[in-house]
Amino acid sequence: MKPAGRIDLPERMRDPAMARLFAALDAADIAARFVGGCVRNAVLGSGIDDIDIAVRKPPETVMLTLRAAKLKAIPTGLKHGTVTAIVDGHTFELTTLRRDEETDGRHAVVAFTDDWLEDASRRDFTFNALYADRDGTLYDPFEGRADLAQHKVRFIGDPDLRIAEDRLRVLRFFRFHAWYGAPPLDGPSYEACARHSGALGSLSGERVAKEVLRLLAAPDPADAIEAMADAGALDHWLPEYDGTQRLRALIARETAPDGLRRLAAVLEKDADAPTIGKRLKLSTQQALRLEIMLAREPVMDVAGGARAWRAQIYGVGTSLYIDRLLLAVDAAGDWRAALALAQSWTPPDLPVSGSDALKLGLKPGPKVGTLLDAVERWWIAGDFTADRAACLAELERLAKHT
Ligand code: ATP
Ligand code: MG
Description:
This protein is an alpha+beta fold. The chain has 20 helices and 10 strands. The longest helix is centred in the C-terminal third of the chain and has 16 residues, at 366-381.
């Protein structure tokens, strides 16, 4: 693989931990290059998450080398060539150069190789097969840098074959398009995705959820999810998809992207959250939040002013209220003021409790709960102004009359 210019590496790829790691590899004559997302994002000058390093020696050799240099090495996936190095608290994934021996539509049997180009050829998109030496020397065997500049997500090799090897790549195509692409999509890549979208049903719900939520967390994912739907890639996993109209309105309101909230915005209004949660193997917490975001009741009263806002914030809790408010794009009223209130007002606790009812001589039982609910309704209707003494008086009054 020939060098293709130089790039400035971000601080994290040049820090002392990095230097220690490369010193250990150099000492054992193990050729190593940054690869994948970290190089792509370094080219873009955007933030990097994980640092992947491709190494030209088998994982066992890498393990021994790191340990000999007193660095922590974890055999994360020796069969697949992956060793995790932990240096000064920083984590790096070191993966031996590979080629696919066999593929079954999702998982590959890999063989190790010492050929950089073979390793590059099994990667998915041209801009994900960028490599960089420690000094910033760039390797770009499939002109990924030009594609990145043109916002083109393009499969390496024949898109149909690449998807047949691993159909998850259909979802990755749209996810990377959401983050780095711009219309028009690369025709051959898109058409192949559309041809294979019928095969996505055999993926696991978790993987699909992860990809879709990551796609939706991109700064402006509306065109990408629309293209994905047009390609039929949502048919199996999200038949409740209902267009991007509300998503676009939500994005205009948000201050920070939130994948799950955006998911709620692309679903039919009466979509069944528990069903979707099960299908996509969402966590209990995610499924519950989705359910509350999609619930018709209580109808958001944005036009009702501060009193109505406080009552609803108290009812559902601040963060879920904000979710519902941002999603209520058709509701009339000053949503900005409602949002500001939700962010500044802390819902109070009801100043009376069951023990107060018992002190009034009531027997433990369902009646206590009913009475407290009535006091709470009265207290909310009074815009939370009644203090403990007033609430106690109301409790006593209600206890006598029921
Ligand atoms: P990010 O982590 O920012 O989403 P990334 O490019 O690092 O992006 P990963 O999923 O972490 O993506 O994968 C790391 C690299 O491994 C990719 O850049 C790509 O080269 C390769 N890769 C990952 N998954 C696949 C796949 N299913 N098929 C082919 N290559 C893949
Ligand atoms: Mg990554």
